[in-house]
Each structure stands twice: as C-alpha cells, then as structure tokens.
Design goal:
306 residues; alpha/beta; Rossmann fold; seven-stranded mixed β-sheet; two-stranded antiparallel ribbon; 12 helices
Length: 306
C-alpha cells in the first residue's frame, strides 16, 4: 500500500511482511513466459519475489529517488526495466508490444486508486490485474446491488471484468503503520470484451447520471436527464421493453442490468434520430403544404425539441 502524506516527495507505507508479499505475488500466478508490469514497486518488496520467475518485469515508479534506487538494485538484470514516471501518463502500448498479454501487479496510492484502476481498464486491457487497495474500495467494487457501498465503481469494473477478493492485509503488515486496512483483489478483464467501445462510453454516461442521484427513482433520473430527453411515455415503453422496474433506485440494478438498459436507451436514440430523418425527408415546403409547423397528423406524437 502506498499511503499519501504531506511530507515530500511522496509519503509511503511499505509492506514488510514477507509471507504476505509472497502470497500477493503468487496470486498473479507468475509464469516464465509472462511479461509483468508492477506499479509502485517502492523498495522492490514484491519485485524480489517476481525476478527470475517471469520473462520480463517492468517497474513503474513515480518517486524519483526510489526509481533510481531500483535501477541500481536491478542494474545487472536484463529482464528488469525500471521506468520513472506517472503510470496514468503511460499508455500500455508504449510499455509493451502486447498489452493484452500483460499482467499487472501493484501496491498503489490510495488517493489514486480509482483513476489508476480505470486507466488499466482502458482498451487494450491487460490479461490479469492484482492490486492491493484500501479495504473500503474493495468493498465498493465487490458489493452487491442494493448495498450502500454499491455504485458507479462497482458497475464500471464488473461490467467489463471478473473481480475477486484474494486476501486481507492488516495495517500492522506495513511500516510505518497506516490508519487503514487493505485488501488484495484480482481482476480478470473479460475477453473478448462484452461491450463495444460505444457501449462502454454510453454505460459510463448512464452510471454517472444514475449515481449522482442514487436516492431518486431511475425513471425520474431518466426523465430529468438532458442526455436522454425521455418523457413519461418513453419511460413506460423502456420499462416494457426491458422488463425492469424503473421506479426502483439505481443502486438496485445489477451491472448486467445497467448494460441492458444502456443498450435499450441507445436503440431508442437511434430509432428516434432515424425516425426524425425519415419524417424530415418526406416533408413538403410549408408554403405548398399549407399547414403550420405546429400541426401534426392525427395520432402522431410531436418530435421532441432538442
């Protein structure tokens, strides 16, 4: 675990329990053919358990002094590469020639867990990710629908990957001792990806809109969101199409239900845009039509104003 503080350059807590170090590395199931990226290696606590067990080990360390120390420590090894820099600014394609086969392990800063996690889940995704995170973050990722911890992080991660809790790491395993407990999780991105790139973007939009107002009914969120422009009639049709009770709150919808709702909303958007285009192409000039723009054929619902 890497714990931030106000002390320069970077305040850190280092895992000193060698038994736990070995268990974390074993959770990655290192193989002689593997290429492994370790994020935040620190003094090399996990690195020493990986060296010689994998084909190539890449150490990405933000702290300049630690990066220099690691480079000196492993200078005689051709299978170890030390990169000093921010992993958020490192495209996986620049670190490895085959991102989809990469394995990732790390004790990451708790104040950067979410951005690093979502960075790793950008395409192309690694084959496997083992991270030590704050216990509360692990609870949020793994919590079931309906629980208070369940939210956008739960949906965002589990809609594209399988996640499991590997082991608990008590605060006493670190020096200096932090004020939080940790959990090691294993993330295996689903391959092939279950969603298209467009669906993943639309899912993020929906989860953001939903969990910003998590205490509201889903139908009210959809009606009030400028992203969807739905009225009561639309919401009723959407509920009928999906079979979902949209009077429930977002926290009651599983990741898969969020995916299905995202797809249904996109189908309605495409149909609406397509219908508007067909309608406009068939219209005659108003002077020849002899009708006002506000008039519609009997039974026809007016197009929504954008």
């Amino acid at each position: 675990m890497r714990h931030s503080s106000t002390k320069p350059p970077l305040g850190q807590n280092f895992l000193v329990d060698r038994n736990l170090q070995a268990k974390i590395v074993d959770a990655l199931e290192p193989d002689p053919q593997d290429e492994v990226l370790e994020i935040g290696p620190g003094h090399g606590e996990l690195s020493l358990h990986l060296v010689g067990r994998v084909r190539r080990l890449i150490l990405a360390e933000l702290d300049r002094k630690l990066a220099r120390s690691l480079a000196e420590q492993f200078q005689d090894r051709n299978d170890v590469t030390v990169i000093q820099g921010d992993v958020l600014a490192m495209p996986l394609g620049e670190i490895t020639t085959c991102p989809r086969e990469l394995k990732v392990i790390g004790n990451i800063p708790y104040n950067r867990t979410t951005p690093i996690l979502f960075k790793l889940l950008e395409r192309p995704r690694p084959r496997e990710i083992v991270l030590m995170v704050q216990r509360e973050v692990a609870d949020r990722i793994l919590s079931p629908p309906g629980s208070k911890e369940y939210g956008a992080l739960s949906v965002g991660v589990r809609s594209v990957a399988e996640v499991e809790r590997v082991l608990a790491v008590p605060r006493g395993a670190f020096r200096p001792i932090p004020n939080v407990d940790s959990t090691v999780i294993r993330i295996r991105p689903t391959s092939p990806p279950p969603l298209t790139v467009g669906e993943e973007t639309n899912l993020r939009v929906l989860t953001r809109a939903a969990f910003q107002q998590r205490r509201k009914q889903f139908q009210k969120i959809l009606r009030g969101s400028h992203e969807y422009e739905l009225d009561g009639f639309d919401v009723d049709e959407l509920a009928g199409e999906t079979g979902f009770d949209l009077s429930a709150r977002p926290e009651e919808f599983s990741p898969q239900q969020f995916v299905e709702l995202t797809r249904a909303l996109e189908r309605r958007r495409v149909d609406r845009v397509g219908g508007r285009a067909v309608h406009e192409s068939k219209r005659e000039p108003l002077a020849e039509e002899g009708v006002r723009d506000s008039e519609h054929a009997p039974g026809q619902r007016p197009s929504k104003k954008r």
